[in-house]
Amino acid sequence: MVSSASPSPGEDETIDMLFHLSRRSQAMVDRLISCLDRMEQVEPDADRMKDVFELDFLAIRMRRNDESLLVLAGGESARIRRDPVTLVEVLHGARSEVEDYRRIEFGVIDESLLVAAPVVNDLVHLLAELFDNAAAFSPPDSAILVEARKVADRAVLLVEDRGIGMGAQRLRELNQRLAGPSPVTAATVRQMGIEVVSRLAQRHEIRVELESLERGIAASVVLPSHALV
Q1: Is the Cα dihedral 27, 32, 33, 34 positive or negative?
Q2: Measured in Å, how far apart are the chain's first and last C-alpha atoms?
């Protein structure tokens, strides 16, 4: 389900279009990533290797963009996880998909936390969107701090930036959108990141909420017990 309400006929057509466009693009991007992986294994020149790595990173960003369109269409990732993964690995996976990955610093992380296999890919995607957002709205020389701890049978993650923050009204609007996905429209696609986070969170009963800090914004991500092993 894309939202709690039944889609309108026009929304149905939009969802169907997004689904098929994302699937078609994903197939081409996956082939591109495979080609780049083969080039990385045989390229002897260090300078050309840097270019290959940059292309590889852009291809990974393109794949996430396709997967975001698929999320808006109500589809799920074609990549299947069969085993649980530590939360530390999930965080590293999310960081690797962010252009300003060097700015993302891990603070206290409970290394005993293990994420259930069906949740792993969606959680990587969700966190990568939050990391991207924190990087986009904070100074380019500032750090983004990530921490995670276990609280009772849940896991609580915090993503803190040191940006300009936002007004109370805007914060309320974003938290309302995070609490429940909006209908799929052109505006939804233009502000895709927050909508994708909302839908991925709803899929696994994850709670995501933004909070103003003295300087910047903190995003809290609460994983329920069934998302953990």
Answers
A1: positive
A2: 25
